[in-house]
Specification:
It is globular, with a radius of gyration of 15 Å. By secondary structure, it is mainly beta. A four-stranded mixed beta sheet has the order 1-7-6-3. β8 and β9 form a beta hairpin. The protein has one helix and eleven strands.
């Protein structure tokens, strides 16, 4: 992975099947690309805001390009079943960590601590084996 790719790489975005998430962007989006549109549908709602719809359980990727065709966001999109288990882990003096699990667990932001919404930056989702 080159240096530029490392700069734009974001942590995965997780959402439930048949739900919509609004993702604020740091800059204007001209184009969105989804690896597998059958898993998630993504549309530009406003130049700095995209809408993501979880269409089927699975994982794909999202790339957002600016007006010059340069990628400024690249992230995995993870769509989990609506009934996927959610767990909050509390460790000592550290902030709580929220996980969504359906066969495999992913750490997410925007759970209990974040009010269940996507934060201003893309949510984190770190696979846990």
């Amino acid at each position: 992975m080159n240096a530029h790719a490392a700069e734009i790489q974001q942590r995965p975005i997780s959402l439930s099947l048949n739900t919509v998430a609004i993702l604020p962007l740091a800059q204007d989006a001209a184009t969105v690309i989804v690896g597998n549109p059958g898993v998630a549908n993504v549309q530009i709602e406003e130049s700095r805001r995209i809408m993501i719809l979880g269409q089927s359980v699975g994982q794909t990727n999202l790339i957002v390009l600016d007006g010059e065709g340069k990628a400024f966001l690249s992230a995995a999109l993870i769509v989990v079943p609506a009934n996927a288990g959610r767990v909050t882990v509390r460790r000592g003096g550290k902030p709580p960590a929220d996980y969504v699990c359906s066969g495999r667990c992913f750490q997410i932001e925007g759970g209990e601590a974040g009010g269940g919404r996507l934060p201003s930056a893309p949510p984190a989702a770190v696979p846990v084996d």
